[in-house]
Amino acid sequence: MPDFFDPLSGAFFENQGPLWLSPSGESSLIKSRNSFQKESILPNYQGLFRYAGNIPLIKREHFVSLGETITPITEVRFNGQDVSLKLEFLFPTGSYKDRGAAVMISAAKALGITELFEDSSGNAGCAVSAYAAAAGISCKIYVPENTSPAKINQMQVYGANVIKVKGTRQDAADEALRQAEHAWFASHVYNPWFYEGTKTFAYELWEQLGGQLPDEILFPVGNGTLILGCYKGFSELMESGLVSQIPSLSIVQAENCAPVCGSKSISPTLAEGIAVAKPARLRQIQQVVKQTGGQFITVSEDEILEAGKEAGKKGFFIENTSAAALAGHLKTPGEKKRLIPLTGTGLKNK
């Protein structure tokens, strides 16, 4: 079994309970016993499982794959400034959440799990439902009642039992937590194997760019699963001496729901995928941004809509959550070499 550790204190502990919480109550991550091994990359795989040798617990016989590929990077010019876009919406279910779900469900398969559940505003639920179906594992998803019908339909097509919870995204999360004693919690927030999947984002960038990383990466952030995984991946590459510095990792949140940026006021936002009022890993996200010299950026609903339109003019149909990150770029121009992950397809908009 892997080693669990508190990412704030660095303390290791023996896992107790279904939420993988450290003794201090902090959500844990996994610490690999070995540093990243370049030689362990599997050349016959063109997606995230090429890095399975650097992911604890996962062996070839446990792979649950839907044919993932390395997502492309393209250079686009907005308002006179070039920016790199990594097209994460090209994953099988339409968002980067497939990274975490593929590895997490593979871990569930390795552990002999036959039933699991998740809470989600949409994308994570779609990803978990799809990979659970591929693994033959029974799946239940708790969603807020205002979740996009397209996302609910997608989960149901995969055979998931979708349970609508009255109230907000937070209400759905709270209901899922109440169920955590009864089944394996395939949580994209709490489950540490999900971050073993999202860390492959960093590995891919390192390979695709020949080690020449961008100065800054702009993430749309709700629960922070991509930025935290990315930081973990880059940290492992640094430990192995394969990169000398981690890019500045910056976050973008909607002004209407920006708790990581310090806002106490919460109201509905078009960027439903990052509408998280109480992120469980809030302190971890803030620590990563500060340690890497990143920025905390908020954008208005009008700025999100305008960014989506600008993306469309360049040929990209993206979800409002993805548009939020682009809005952050348009709002804070500069000289840094910047990369933005486009995290979800526009087909997922309400």
Structure description:
This protein has 350 residues and is of the alpha/beta class. It has helices at 97-110, 123-135, 149-157, 169-178, 192-198, 200-208, 225-239, 282-291, 301-313, 320-331, and strands at 3-5, 12-13, 29-31, 73-78, 81-87, 115-119, 138-144, 161-165, 184-185, 216-220, 248-254, 296-299, 338-342. The protein has a 6-stranded mixed beta sheet, sandwiched between helices. The protein has a 4-stranded parallel beta sheet with strand order 8-7-6-9. A 3-stranded antiparallel beta sheet has the order 2-1-3. It is globular, with a radius of gyration of 18 Å.
How would you summarize the topology of this molecule?
Layout: E1 3-5, E2 12-13, E3 29-31, E4 73-78, E5 81-87, H1 97-110, E6 115-119, H2 123-135, E7 138-144, H3 149-157, E8 161-165, H4 169-178, E9 184-185, H5 192-198, H6 200-208, E10 216-220, H7 225-239, E11 248-254, H8 282-291, E12 296-299, H9 301-313, H10 320-331, E13 338-342
Parallel strand pairs: 5-13, 6-7, 6-9, 7-8, 10-11, 10-13, 11-12
Antiparallel strand pairs: 1-2, 1-3, 4-5
Helix pairs in contact: 1-2, 1-5, 2-3, 5-7, 6-7, 9-10
- CATH fold field value of the largest domain: Rossmann fold
Helical proportion, percent range = 25-40%
Order of helices and strands: EEEEEHEHEHEHEHHEHEHEHHE
Shape: globular
Structural class: alpha/beta
Rounded to the nearest angstrom, the radius of gyration is: 18 Å
Strands, count: 13
Strand residue percentage: 15-25%
Distance N to C terminus? 41 Å
CATH class of the largest domain: Alpha Beta
**Main β-sheet: number of strands, strand sense, barrel status?**
6 strands, mixed
Low-confidence segments, ≥5 residues, pLDDT <50?
Answer: none
Spatial order of the strands in the main sheet?
4-5-13-10-11-12
Helix tally?
A: 10
* Mean pLDDT, all residues: 93
CATH architecture descriptor text of the largest domain: 3-Layer(aba) Sandwich
Number of domains: 2
